[in-house]
Design goal:
This protein has a domain of about 90 residues: YaeB-like fold (2-Layer Sandwich), CATH 3.30.2310. Helices cover about 25% and strands about 30% of the residues. The chain has a 7-stranded mixed beta sheet with strand order 2-3-4-5-1-6-7. A hairpin with an 8-residue loop joins strand 2 and strand 3.
Length: about 140
């Protein structure tokens, strides 16, 4: 399975991993999304009720951990990480509003269409995320 993200997700991870209360954000993301099948990561609240391309809200690390929002494209075997936020601590926040969820959904669809994405991988020790900008194809 290929894992991608939009700029907002990358920025949040890079910001939060520098703060001690959230330094496990990379490890939690790696543990949940890497080396897994679509079926293994399809649990969570399906926000758009679409089984072939569910928009999912999921808790990582239990009740006080992180909330992550992502889109699964089942037939393409791809995951698009959209947004993540801590539930507790100095940067903690409640769930996204319905308006914010809709806006992030639109952003990921636009990013997929324009290829404005980062491909995610992790280092050999599976302790650090690697963000690689996807090359935009030139339209003629």
């Amino acid at each position: 399975m290929d894992v991608y993200c939009i700029q907002e997700f990358k920025s949040i991870v890079e910001k939060l991993k520098k703060n001690k209360p959230y330094n496990e954000i990379e490890q939690d993301t790696i543990d949940y999304f890497f080396g897994k099948t679509i079926a293994e990561i399809s649990s969570g609240a399906n926000l758009n009720n679409n089984p072939s391309s569910p928009y999912i809200k999921k808790r990582l690390s239990g009740r006080g951990g992180f909330r992550v929002y992502y889109l699964l494209l089942v037939k393409d075997d791809k995951t698009y990480l959209i947004y993540i936020h801590p539930k507790t601590g100095p940067e903690g926040s409640p769930n996204l509003t319905e308006t914010a969820k809709t806006e992030f959904y639109k952003k990921v669809l636009q990013a997929i269409e324009s290829n404005d994405l980062y491909k995610l991988s992790c280092n050999a020790k599976k302790t650090e995320l690697i963000f690689e900008k996807v090359e935009k194809s030139v339209k003629k």
